[in-house]
Design a protein that fits this description.
Aminopeptidase; 21% helix; alpha+beta; 4 strands; four-stranded mixed β-sheet; 20% strand; 3 helices; globular
Length: 153
């Protein structure tokens, strides 16, 4: 008998406002803050990129990041941002590799960033310089790790 391989079908469509409720309500509570920085710290931030396990390794996260960059770069460039950053678990090597392929690099290690976990795993703060940062100063790696409470310095 032939072996039948079932592969999940995926498609993309325009995002609708009510889709937000199906993903995450992190930005719907009264305690959420937005920190955009000043001067050379003026930047965009990727809060989360999540793909369900059964749809991983299909290029969806890269497509989401491409879409984000293509739609938000204009916004960040219009407001003259220096870089875009994101945080990723140091153990998440597939995500780190994907981010590196699209131009992000590790800027610093944040000790115990995921403190809600049993092990308080560290995070990498990964950055991608924008065109305003001609000397790419925003992505020069720090030679030492930092603690979460010093992230806004």
């Amino acid at each position: 008998l032939p072996l039948l391989l079932l592969v999940p079908m995926t498609s993309t469509r325009k995002f609708r406002c009510d889709d937000l409720f199906r993903f995450n309500n992190v930005n719907l509570d009264v305690l959420t803050e937005t920190a955009e920085g000043k001067g050379e710290n003026w930047h965009g931030h990727v809060t989360a990129v999540t793909v369900a396990p059964e749809f991983r390794r299909l290029g969806l996260a890269k497509n989401l990041m491409d879409y984000l960059e293509n739609s938000s770069w204009g916004f960040m460039l219009r407001y003259d941002g220096y870089f875009v950053d994101l945080f990723v678990r140091v153990s998440n090597t597939p995500a780190i590799g994907m981010y590196e392929k699209i131009g992000y690099s590790v800027y610093r290690r944040v000790i115990g960033y995921y403190s809600g976990d049993d092990d308080g795993e560290d995070a990498f703060d990964m950055r991608k310089a924008l065109s305003r940062d001609k000397d790419k100063k925003s992505i020069i790696p720090l030679p030492y790790p930092v603690m979460p409470d010093s992230l806004m310095d």
